[in-house]
Amino acid sequence: MGSQVVSILGEEEREVICFSRQQRSGPGQWRRLQDAPTEHISSWIDFGHVWTFDERRDALKSRGAEKIVITSSTSRFTKSQIGNDSENETARKMAEGEERFSAWCEANGIEWVILRPTLIYGHGKDKNISEIAKMIVRFGLFPIFGAGKGKRQPVHADDVARACVQALDSAARNKSYNISGGEVLPYREMVKRVFAALGRKPRMPTVPLPMFRAALMILNRVPRFAQWSPQMAERMNLDMAFDNSEARRDFGYDPRPFKLEVDDVTFN
């Protein structure tokens, strides 16, 4: 999403300086974060993992940070509801990282905003919608485990990028916001729209949850499906929609409904 933010700010003819651990090239001016500061930068958007912010905070402070917008994820809530040990650990790191980030900012007189996107899609950089699309292209179908009625609220990467800029420019401060998409729909309907974007007739065989658990004993032996778990099936029926009214009210967040384009997915 960093490239989308650079594009938005470039259209507004604002100076953008991008930082990375490694030397990089692309739109905007690039610096290595660990280099000695040569400029004063008061406003920051941070796309690093929130739980690793401790590694970057001194560099931002030394450059004069006065407000920082950082991205986390609503999965800090959903992964802790139903997930394996690894996912539960990720949720814990997110929650603790958010707490450390906000506490450090307030202790140093720096304004902060945490944005938690829901399921992000767009530009083929996600690991969710694109995975669904790859299975449809490869097998011509996508199985639905159980009823597949869990609510989803996919958010386009461009809308997340716009929210970052809006939050940075607004009076919003010292607060966390859930950044969800402009439409709530059942998991089954979300998959159906992926079929539509690919120009394919929906083929979504329903697999009872007990049958899926039994099949995993065989599927897990295949490298492609080694990471599949019972939680995948249960997650299809878990509600993962989040209210975004506070973001709409505080900085004009206005996400689009879920409409997938072919360019929004990758098949690599």
How does this structure look, described?
The protein is an alpha/beta fold and 268 residues long. It has one domain (2-264): NAD(P)-binding Rossmann-like Domain (Rossmann fold, 3-Layer(aba) Sandwich). The chain is 39% helix and 15% strand. The protein has 10 helices and 12 strands. It has helices spanning 2-11, 57-62, 75-81, 85-107, 129-139, 157-169, 187-197, 209-219, 230-235, 245-251; strands spanning 17-20, 29-32, 43-46, 67-71, 111-117, 120-121, 144-145, 151-152, 155-156, 175-179, 185-186, 206-207. It has a 4-stranded parallel β-sheet, with helices on both faces. α3 runs antiparallel to α4. The two termini are 19 Å apart. The mean pLDDT is 90.
Structural class: alpha/beta
Please mark out the parts with pLDDT under 50 across 5 or more consecutive residues, or reply none.
Answer: none
Beta fraction: 15-25%
> Assembly state here?
single chain
Shape: elongated
Order of helices and strands: HEEEHEHHEEHEEEHEEHEHHH
> What is the CA-atom radius of gyration, in angstroms?
20 Å
CATH class: Alpha Beta
Number of helices: 10
Instruction: Please estimate the helix content.
Output: 25-40%
What is the total number of structural domains? 1
In the CATH hierarchy, the third-tier topology is known as Rossmann fold
Mean pLDDT: 90
Spell out the CATH superfamily.
Answer: NAD(P)-binding Rossmann-like Domain
Q: Which CATH architecture is right?
A: 3-Layer(aba) Sandwich
Largest sheet: 4 strands, parallel
Number of DSSP E strands: 12
